[in-house]
């Protein structure tokens, strides 16, 4: 088996791959189209930052792509399927870690954690004051979850434990106790916190645009741990600047690693560098899952793929 690994995986990923076959890791950013078309590799082990669009896949001769992420919007799965390329991701292992970060962003943004930390470090803390850095309540507030997959369900469980009211949108019926399924308009208009948990697709690109931001409560906080382009980031900056919404907690950005102009200057934001799954144990589990998927793809074994049936 021959694996092309665009960026080395954490252990035990590399050991598993090396035990199964030959592993090639490029020294510098590879020409993915050439790698895919070379016919030298069974499987490319990819990062979410590696783009496999229809052009890259046009001449591809591969058995599979194993993506080191649950999201796979970096891969044109329809084009891959057309060329007989199976695609795997790493679901489940990062559910709780990502839900923790969504909850962290809810709490940190509502309670102005970043501003408070900067305040202390700047030596401005001179003693307790009745009106110092007042924030909004989390307990008793309403959380709107856009989408109700694994991560949203894990966020719902956390939010319910914090005394929040939880609503969601979902294509399927929702049977989670304490969670009400509503339509998108109701979710937008009634949520104190609106948290995004849909995959990035043509349908969800800019799902949160200027018109949605206008319909949110002025006191609302937007949370995004999914994919940046689900939000029109320039419109978000305007909405945060003008007070159309109260704040945003973001782990992902529309044009990563770049931020929309002005976003980093806004005090009512908590900004993380796409670390939803970044715990040592989760990254190791993702690496194991990704490597095992790659080996199964190379061997032609049964494996859970994301290709359409
Ligand atoms: C994913 O897996 O899709 C996250 O964005 C990174 O772990």
Automatic annotation (TrEMBL):
A Pfam entry, by short name: 2-Hacid_dh_C
Domain of life from the UniProt record: Bacteria
Family indicated by similarity: Belongs to the D-isomer specific 2-hydroxyacid dehydrogenase family.
Name of the protein in its database record: Glyoxylate reductase
SUPFAM superfamilies found in the cross-reference section: Formate/glycerate dehydrogenase catalytic domain-like, NAD(P)-binding Rossmann-fold domains
Keyword tags: Oxidoreductase
Record keyword Oxidoreductase present: yes
């Amino acid at each position: 088996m021959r694996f092309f690994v665009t960026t080395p995986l954490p252990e035990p990923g590399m050991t598993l791959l090396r035990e199964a076959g030959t592993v090639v890791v490029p020294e510098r950013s590879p020409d993915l189209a050439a790698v895919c078309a070379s016919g030298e590799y069974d499987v490319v082990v990819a990062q979410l930052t590696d783009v496999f669009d229809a052009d890259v896949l046009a001449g591809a001769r591969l058995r599979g792509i194993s993506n080191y992420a649950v999201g796979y919007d970096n891969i044109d799965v329809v084009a891959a399927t057309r060329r007989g390329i199976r695609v795997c991701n790493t679901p489940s292992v990062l559910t709780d870690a990502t839900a923790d970060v969504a909850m962290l962003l809810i709490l940190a943004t509502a309670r102005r954690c970043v501003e408070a930390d900067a305040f202390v470090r700047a030596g401005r803390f001179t003693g307790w004051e009745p009106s110092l850095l007042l924030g909004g309540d989390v307990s008793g507030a309403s959380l709107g979850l856009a989408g109700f997959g694994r991560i949203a369900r894990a966020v719902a469980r956390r939010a319910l434990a914090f005394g929040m009211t939880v609503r969601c949108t979902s294509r399927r019926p929702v049977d989670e106790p304490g969670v009400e399924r509503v339509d998108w308009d109701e979710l937008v208009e009634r949520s104190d916190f609106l948290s995004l948990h849909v995959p990035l697709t043509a349908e969800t690109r800019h799902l949160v645009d200027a018109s949605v931001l206008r319909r949110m409560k002025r006191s609302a906080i937007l949370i995004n741990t999914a994919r940046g382009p689900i939000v029109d980031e320039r419109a978000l900056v305007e909405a945060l600047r003008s007070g159309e919404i109260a704040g945003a907690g973001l782990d992902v950005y529309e044009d990563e690693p770049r931020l929309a102009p002005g976003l980093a200057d806004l005090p009512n934001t908590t900004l993380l560098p796409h670390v939803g799954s970044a715990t040592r144990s989760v990254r190791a589990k993702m690496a194991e899952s990704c490597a095992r998927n790659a080996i199964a793809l190379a061997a032609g074994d049964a494996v859970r793929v994301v290709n359409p049936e």
